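queue> pop job 88
queue> type: inverse folding (structure -> sequence)
queue> payload:
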């Protein structure tokens, strides 16, 4: 383990640049490699027909990272639910032990879904345009089809079509005030409300470790890798009820005598879990949930004399059922009320992504700084070094600056490299490791 040093930013192909790094010279790697899901319109995100190529790609870069990491060094790599298995196999084939998989939930995503009714309406509309010999330039055709299937009744292109060629005999889709579209073709109506995909609200983060020789104890006597920084990653809590039960050693609900019902430190907080959640905005009425302070629904023992308007949540534990809406549950860097067991982190705001940049951040998959800070301090020893072979716009580097870890980042794109350099340099001059700095990045509403 070394001391915190100036970030090292490298522009170029990761395979060529990784080959120049010394063996066993980095403590950990936190990275966000390509997902290969063909939804971003980027060449590096295109999903190949031969899926074995995805595994081979991940094996190739993971093998170099394996060589560069010290024995016991951790690798955290983001993936997509439907392609992460290819990455896991590649990382394992490179020599890593697969230790776990963290689930990061972020319910703000827009569904990447193909609407079945719209697809059928489009199919028949395109066929009809050919039949009537409609003569429009390619761009007008694209815009016309879009206006048609979205039910834009006031469309100038649809008005032009009606004047010159009329409209399809089955009519046009009708856009509704709530944003829905009523399909037009009888066959399309049969498939209203159907689609091809669920909304993607989580991303897996693969947790892998480079093996080491001998026992953990012997390894730690000569190295500072191989373990997670559990206390650094604990979830802050003000849960006096839980802390008092921990200290008193009282018999817990459903646990062995003398053991706490949850692994919790009175001074440090809750034990980190492999589930990371972000606030989802407004909660629906009637949902059993855990409110943010100060109106937290307190649990009650089943033999309590108090009357409790609850339903059971876990063995021996109950939470109040609340009917009102709960807005913006974010409490900052990992806090969502006293009884939340999991890390809470929102998607990054434009203010967060653009800090230090004059023209804004163009990268399509920027991760939250608070999330990357959490991961960095979990797997990188204090004062240690972190590698990101797919640096993007540099969020891992920003997190390393905040957490006083040395950083080496590699990025192929000149545009994104400049963004990473700007964000990281700005952070070096303006870093603030207080909780208030994280709260300032959250949306105002």
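queue> result:
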């Amino acid at each position: 383990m070394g001391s915190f040093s100036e970030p090292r930013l490298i522009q170029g192909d990761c395979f060529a640049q990784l080959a120049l790094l010394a063996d066993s010279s980095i403590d950990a790697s936190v990275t966000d490699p390509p997902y290969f899901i063909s939804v971003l319109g980027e060449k590096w995100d295109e999903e190949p027909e031969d899926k074995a190529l995805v595994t081979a790609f991940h094996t190739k870069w993971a093998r170099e990272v394996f060589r560069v990491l010290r024995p016991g060094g951790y690798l955290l790599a983001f993936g997509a639910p439907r392609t992460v298995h290819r990455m896991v196999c590649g990382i394992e084939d490179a020599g890593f032990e697969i230790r776990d998989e963290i689930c990061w939930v972020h319910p703000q995503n827009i569904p990447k879904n193909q609407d079945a009714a719209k697809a059928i309406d489009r199919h028949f509309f395109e066929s009809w345009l050919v039949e009537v010999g409609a003569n429009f330039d390619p761009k007008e055709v694209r815009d016309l089809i879009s206006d048609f299937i979205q039910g834009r009744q006031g469309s100038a292109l649809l008005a032009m079509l009606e004047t010159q060629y009329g409209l399809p005999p089955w009519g046009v889709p009708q856009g509704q005030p709530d944003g829905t579209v009523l399909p037009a073709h009888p066959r399309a109506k049969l498939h209203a409300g159907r689609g091809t995909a669920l909304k993607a609200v989580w991303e897996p983060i693969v947790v892998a470790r480079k093996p080491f020789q001998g026992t953990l104890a012997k390894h730690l006597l000569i190295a500072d890798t191989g373990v997670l920084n559990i206390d650094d990653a604990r979830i802050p809590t003000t849960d006096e009820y839980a802390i008092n039960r921990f200290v008193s050693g009282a018999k817990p609900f459903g646990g062995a005598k003398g053991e706490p019902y949850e692994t919790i430190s009175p001074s440090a907080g809750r034990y980190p879990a492999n589930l990371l959640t972000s606030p989802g905005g407004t909660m629906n009425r009637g949902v059993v949930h855990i409110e943010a302070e100060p109106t937290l629904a307190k649990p009650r023992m089943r033999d309590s004399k108090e009357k409790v308007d609850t339903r059971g949540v876990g063995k021996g534990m109950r939470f109040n059922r609340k009917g009102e809406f709960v807005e913006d549950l974010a409490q900052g860097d990992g806090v969502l009320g006293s009884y939340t067991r999991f890390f809470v982190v929102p998607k990054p705001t434009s203010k967060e992504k653009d800090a230090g940049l004059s023209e804004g951040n163009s990268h399509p998959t920027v991760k939250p700084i608070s999330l990357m800070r959490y991961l960095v301090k979990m797997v990188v020893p204090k004062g240690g070094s972190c590698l990101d072979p797919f640096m993007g716009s540099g969020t891992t580097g920003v997190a390393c600056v905040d957490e006083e870890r040395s950083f080496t980042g590699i990025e192929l794109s000149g545009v994104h490299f400049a963004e990473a350099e700007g964000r990281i340099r700005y952070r070096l001059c303006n870093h603030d490791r207080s909780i208030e700095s994280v709260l300032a990045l959250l949306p105002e509403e």
